[in-house]
Amino acid sequence: MSKYKLPNKPFEYQNFINGEYINSLSNEIFERKSPAHGNLIGTYQLSNKQDTEQAISVAKKAFKSNYWSDMAGSDREKIIRKAASIIRERAHELALIETLESGKPISQSLDEMEWAAGIWDYAATLARHIAGDVNTNLGKDMTVMLQKVPIGVVAMITPWNFPLLIISQKLPIALAAGCTAVIKPSEMTPGTTLLLGGILKEAGLPDGVVNILAGYGDPVGMTLSESNNVDMITFTGSTDVGKHIMRAASGNLKKVALELGGKNPQIIFPDANIDALIDAVVFGVYFNMGECCNSGSRIIIHEDVVEEFQEKVVAHSKKVKLGDPLDPSVKFGAIINKMQLDKIKKYVDSGTAQGAKLLLGGNQITINNGNYFEPTIFTDVKPEMEIACEEIFGPVLSILTFKTRKEAIEIANSTPFGLSAGVWTKDLDTAMIMTREIDAGTVWVNNWMSGNPEIPFGGFKQSGIGRELGPGAIDEFMETKSVMIKTEVSNGSWV
Ligand code: NAD
Question: Which CATH number fits domain 265-445: 3.30.450.40, 3.40.50.720, 3.40.309.10, 3.10.620.30?
Answer without folding.
Answer: 3.40.309.10
